[in-house]
Each structure stands twice: as C-alpha cells, then as structure tokens.
Amino acid sequence: MAPLLNPYLNFDGNARQAMEYYKEVFGGELNMHTFGEIGGAGEEYADKIMHGMLTTPDGFTLMGSDGPPGMEYASGNNFAVSLSGEEEDTLRRYWEKLSDGGQVSVPLERQMWGDIFGMCTDRFGVPWMVNISTREG
Questions:
Q1: What does residue 116 show for φ and ψ, rounded to 5 degrees?
Q2: pTM higher than 0.85 for the full model?
Q3: 56-61, long-range: CB within 8 Å, 24+ apart, which pairs?
Q4: Domains in the chain, start-ordered, CATH in brackets?
Q5: Rounded CA separation 73/78 (Å)
Q6: Distance CA 29, CA 101 (A)
Q7: Tens digit of pLDDT for each residue in 62-74?
Q8: From CA 126, how far away is CA 61, in angstroms rounded?
Q9: Which residue from 24, 29, 35, 89 puts its CA 20 to 30 A from 63's CA?
C-alpha cells in the first residue's frame, strides 16, 4: 500500500464529538484510542482521544486527537499534515527532507504503541507527522 497523505486535526478536549460528527457527515469506519488505553498520560487525560481515524467510502482519511498533555491548544496549531504507511525507506526519505531546515518536535523513533513516529515543522511553518507502521498483519 502506498503512503497516505491526509489532514490531522487537533481539538481542545472534544475530539470524540468532532470525529463522531465527521463520521455522520462522511460515513465510513471510525477508530479511536484514548490516552488511557495507550498509557503515559495522567488520569485527567485517560478518556481524551490520543488518536482517531475516519476512513470513508469515498477514500477520504481524516485523523484527529485531543491535544496531548503539555501542548496548549490555539488556533493555528490545530492541524498537521500526516504521512503514514509501511514503506519505511520512502517515509524516512520524506522525513529527512521535511525536517531539513525545519524544527523537530518529536524525533522519528519507535514509540510506545510500536510504530516509528516523528513530528516536525518544515522550513515554511507547516507541521508534519510521519508514522511508519511496523505492526504485523
């Protein structure tokens, strides 16, 4: 499967309601995981959405989450462009080019959920997320 490019939206505590709303609008399959399921966040974040993904019948993919602990929500930081897939060499090449001359906020490395993930802002101020799926199956 080729890498996916899609918007990733950040919400101020209402990601569940927003993602359910987008499912009503576009249809499709919605999967959501909370900070509590993944671990590593305090009790006040246990029910907040760490990652949600809506895949629609028309081929749209929309991702979203509540802002993680320590990240202040503000207009302008409520989105990122997400690159994801299984082609590690291709996605690492994109990461190297996007982060060159930009600012890395999360280094591209294995995360607690098992995938290789990183976040950066490119030299033009566009926020990017890269997720290399390493799960079998």
A1: -95, 125
A2: no
A3: 56/26, 56/27, 56/28, 57/27, 57/28, 58/26, 60/6, 60/26, 60/28, 61/4, 61/6
A4: 4-132 (3.10.180.10)
A5: 7
A6: 37
A7: 999 997 766 666 6
A8: 19
A9: 89
